[in-house]
Write a structure and sequence with these properties.
InterPro entries: ATPase_a/bsu_AS, ATPase_alpha/beta_chains, ATPase_F1/V1_b/a_C, P-loop_NTPase
CATH superfamily of the largest domain: P-loop containing nucleotide triphosphate hydrolases
CATH topology of the largest domain: Rossmann fold
Family: Belongs to the ATPase alpha/beta chains family.
Subcellular location: Membrane
Number of helices: 16
Radius of gyration: 20 Å
CATH architecture of the largest domain: 3-Layer(aba) Sandwich
Keywords: ATP synthesis, ATP-binding, CF(1), Ion transport, Membrane, Nucleotide-binding, Translocase, Transport
Distance between the termini: 40 Å
Structural class: alpha/beta
Strand content: 5-15%
Shape: globular
Main location: membrane
């Protein structure tokens, strides 16, 4: 079978209120979300689901399916993002979090890292004033306040753009109008990151509509100050479910998620009943899970004044090497504290 994936961009443009529309024809929003991010292999999707989505988008099933088109990732050098849910170049990424879980810090860090890169960051401010953005938006190359102003800026950029904005423009429908105009102008160099400053998106079945990448933050990690608090199981990216990804990366991610799922179960047992209730045969799994969780914390440049820790950038190649070492027990001699906020092990 050809390499195929869902035409998320088309679906996003054609069906703004996808959650309601999908439900109305008997398609679960979670199914749509999993197809968009690649959690469900498109080749295994039910025909009626694809026909239903094509009907909603007023297109043919062939138009809804992209064949043989390779996705590319934008390497952020933030370990947990690049490893579990890479940013898809030209795609749409949504951050799902409640206030206080670190989403603003992640945005600030990304803008800081892209500042001197080939990417231009454009931040469209929300209509309402959000005090928590103070000191953050200044990190963007360009800050806009209206859709019209944003359209002019985006169409004038020659290079690649990281476009950041708030969910309020999805609710108003203005973001979809902007995307339609950009498509009409054949603007294709934009990677979009969506944030919900209200935190209400956490309770939605299909956050933001169709997404190529989902970064879901984890309250438990945030409470324990394990930042960036990106959920290693629920965060996902369409780039990880196909041959676009290096096979070694794909296999390591699968192994890591399997181990972390069991570690989280064992951690719940320990929290309620104590460490002595963890089966002796699974102590190795528990300890390596602890080490992996600690390893995926990372000092961020924008937080240096608050944490006193120097920011670290870790190339994906090093992250893969480090994770492989942890999984194979080569770091069993290191304590959890030695791995926490360590950057790379090299």
């Amino acid at each position: 079978m050809d390499d195929i994936r869902l035409n998320v961009a088309l679906l996003r443009r054609k069906v703004p209120n996808l959650t309601t529309a999908a439900k109305s024809i008997g398609i679960r929003p979670a199914t749509v979300s999993n197809l968009c991010t690649g959690k469900i292999d498109l080749g295994k999707a039910e025909v009626r689901t694809l026909v239903g989505l094509a009907t909603l988008a007023n297109c043919s099933v062939d138009e809804l399916i992209l064949r043989g088109e390779k996705l590319n990732m934008i390497e952020t050098q933030i370990k947990t993002l690049d490893f579990f849910a890479p940013l898809v170049k030209g795609g749409t990424t949504g951050i799902v979090a409640r206030p206080g879980m670190g989403q603003i810090v992640i945005l600030a860090e990304l803008m800081h890292r892209f500042k001197e890169s080939e990417y231009t960051t454009v931040f469209l401010l929300p209509v309402k004033n959000h005090q928590e953005l103070e000191g953050t938006t200044e990190l963007a190359n360009i800050v806009t306040t209206t859709i019209d102003e944003t359209f002019k800026i985006l169409t004038s950029q020659i290079g690649d753009v990281i476009f950041i904005t708030d969910k309020s423009y999805i609710v108003s429908g203005e973001l979809f109008d902007l995307q339609e105009k950009l498509v009409a102008e054949r603007v294709q160099n934009i990677t979009t990151i969506l944030v919900d400053l209200s935190g209400e998106v956490v309770d939605e079945e299909l956050p933001y509509g169709p997404l190529e990448t989902l970064w879901q933050l984890d309250a438990d990690l945030a409470i324990r100050h394990q930042f960036p608090a990106v959920h290693p199981i629920y965060s996902t990216s369409s780039i990880l479910e196909g041959i676009e990804l290096d096979q070694r990366h794909f296999n390591l991610r699968q192994r890591t998620q399997k181990l972390l799922r069991r570690y989280r179960e064992l951690r719940s047992v320990m929290t309620v009943h104590g460490r002595e209730k963890i089966p002796a045969g699974e102590l190795e799994t528990y300890h390596r899970g602890e080490r992996l969780e600690a390893y995926f914390t990372q000092p961020l440049f924008v937080a240096e004044d608050f944490t006193g820790k120097q920011g670290k950038a870790v190339r994906l190649a090093l992250t893969l090497q480090d994770v492989e070492s942890i999984l194979e027990g080569k770091t069993d001699h290191l304590s959890v504290d030695e791995l926490r906020y360590c950057g790379s092990l090299v």
